[in-house]
Amino acid sequence: GSRLEPEERSMEPPAVPEEEEEEEGAVPLSMAPGPVGCQLFGYVGIEAVLDQMKIKTMKTGFEFNIMVVGQSGLGKSTMVNTLFKSKVSRKSSQPGQEERIPKTVQLQSITHVIEEKGVKMKLTVTDTPGFGDQINNENCWDPIIKYINEQYERYLREEILITRKRKIPDTRVHGCVYFVPPTGHWLRPLDLEFMRRLSKIVNVVPVIAKADTLTLEERAEFKQRIQENLKTHAISVYPQEDFDQDSEDRALNDRIREKIPFAVVGADQEHQVNGKRVLGRKTKWGIIEVENPAHCEFPLLQDLLIRSHLQDLKDITHNVHYESYRVRRLNESNQLG
User: Fold this and answer.
1) Pick the CATH number of 49-91+100-266+298-335 from 3.40.50.720, 3.40.50.300, 2.40.30.20, 3.90.180.10
2) Where is the composition biased (Basic and acidic residues) (predicted)?
3) Element (H, E) at 121
């Protein structure tokens, strides 16, 4: 019996749902003393846990909440439609309304259920029209920060109830895509101040909007400058270095960090190129293919937000940003109590 003990211990982790990571300071299992990974006498079938998790997730579906921030006219709505290959932004869901530039930042959230190969995703897109459009943009980030914190608050309220729902509806913002205007110079004080405040409470992914207005050299220089700006002002955008789990993660994320901010171009029209339908923007001198990595870094953004890091964005939101909000709020209420 005693010889099998370490084995039982090492069989545990897969069954833990991904949300609950081991507390910091806990010894990682591979470092636990004693013989690790002992010999099995035949096939046990532990990896079936993965299928179980998959079936469960497919039944319940999952939520993903994304926020887009930037001045009007940078193509935020178009970008979201391009990301999810469907009309999911506020622009497309309110046809016939003439475009008014709002006088204040109003937040508009639209929820859609997208389904692909039997996987349901409840996608909420929060748009921030009017951000940074005024002459005096003092504190224009307040409504946005307030909104993000309100979602944490809503989740916290559900979580501290004595009888909780089995699945708390998750409206927390998992990622905020920040659109930088393609000036080719430096980040504006507005951008810096906003990202500085925002990166403390949410995963910020900066992108250079309408990047087709810059030449390749300008693009590379602008990128370099933005990276310097972020370093100088100690702004930690997603994927944050502090949260890399291991060297493998670090290597992957370093490759992404080199390329941030992604220079992106959005398009929701299809064009014929060499007999293939491609998403792109038609100009007098040719078609900019949005999903062609040689033309634009949109595929990198799509990979980051959906194909490779969606779960990670959710985990960091839950384990880091929401956690620090929760600690702060509970401390406040304890002091009041």
Assistant:
1) 3.40.50.300
2) 1-11
3) strand 119-127
Q: pLDDT at position 30, please?
A: 52
Cα dist from 101 to 94, 105, 275, whole Å:
15, 10, 39
129 alpha-carbon distance from chain centroid: 19
In 238-266, which positions are buried (b, 16+ CB within 10 angstroms) versus exposed (e)?
bbeeebbeeeeeeeebeebbeebbbbbbb
208, 79, 89, 230: CA torsion to nearest 10: -20
Cis peptide before 239 (omega within 30 of 0): yes
Contacts with 156 (C-beta within 8 Å, 6 or more apart), sequence order: 322, 325, 326, 329
Is 189 in a helix, a strand, or coil?
Answer: helix
Q: By the 8 A CB rule, do 127 and 107 touch?
A: yes
Three-state secondary-structure class, residue 133:
coil
Return all residues near 160 (Cβ < 8 A) that are at least 6 apart.
Answer: none
Mean pLDDT, 10 residues at a time, the chain of 337 residues: 44 45 50 63 87 88 92 87 81 59 77 88 89 87 94 95 92 96 90 94 95 90 95 94 89 92 87 86 87 88 91 95 96 85
Angstrom distance (rounded) from CA 139 to CA 227: 24
Cβ(176)–Cβ(67) below 8 Å: yes
Contacts of 66 (CB under 8 A, 6+ apart): 80, 123, 124, 125, 126, 173, 174, 175, 176, 177, 305
Name the nearest CA neighbour of 97 among 70, 67, 77: 77
Q: Under 8 Å CB-to-CB from 76, ≥6 apart: which residues?
A: 68, 69, 70, 89, 127, 177, 179, 209
CA dist 216 and 208 (Å) reads: 13
Three-state DSSP class for 167? Answer: coil
- Tokens 């944050």 -> residue: 240
